[in-house]
């Protein structure tokens, strides 16, 4: 699995979008939504692990996991997003605790 995120608000990820790495199809998103705690669009993608050769993948229990860029195709429009092998997470709840000045 890959965990995808972007701060872009358009186009909207819905799920079932093709995922590309270096213009090569590696999988598809299985679900997507707006992550209100993270304040960005997020998605989970099922990918063929063998297609990730050359990408640094680490299994760490603590600390930030490395990210890399992939593209997803939304209705014929490619959008670059960040991919991570670890779940997207705000462990200190920093985003949830911010008070808006609006």
What do these coordinates show?
This protein is mainly beta and 102 residues long. It is built from one helix and six strands. The protein has one helix at residues 94-97; strands spanning 2-6, 18-21, 24-35, 40-47, 67-74, 77-84. The protein has a six-stranded antiparallel β-barrel with strand order 1-4-3-2-5-6. Strand 5 (67-74) and strand 6 (77-84) form a beta hairpin. It is globular.
SSE order and pairing:
Elements: E1 2-6, E2 18-21, E3 24-35, E4 40-47, E5 67-74, E6 77-84, H1 94-97
Antiparallel strand pairs: 1-4, 1-6, 2-3, 2-5, 3-4, 5-6
Short description:
This protein has 102 residues and is mainly beta.
Mean pLDDT: 83
Q: Please state the CA-atom Rg, rounded to the nearest Å.
A: 14 Å
Distance between the terminal alpha carbons, to the nearest Å? 37 Å
Strand order of the largest sheet: 1-4-3-2-5-6
Bulk shape:
globular
Please state the structural category.
Answer: mainly beta
Which ranges are low-confidence, i.e. pLDDT below 50, for 5 or more consecutive residues? none
């Amino acid at each position: 699995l890959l965990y995808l995120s972007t701060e872009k608000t358009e186009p909207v990820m819905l799920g079932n979008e093709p995922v590309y790495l270096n213009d090569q199809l590696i999988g598809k998103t299985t679900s997507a939504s707006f992550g209100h705690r993270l304040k960005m669009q997020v998605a989970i993608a099922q990918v063929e692990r063998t297609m990730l050769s050359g990408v640094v993948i680490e299994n760490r229990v603590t600390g930030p996991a490395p990210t890399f860029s992939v593209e997803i195709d939304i209705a014929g429009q490619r959008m670059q997003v960040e991919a991570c092998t670890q779940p997207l997470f705000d462990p200190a709840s920093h985003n949830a605790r911010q008070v808006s000045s609006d």
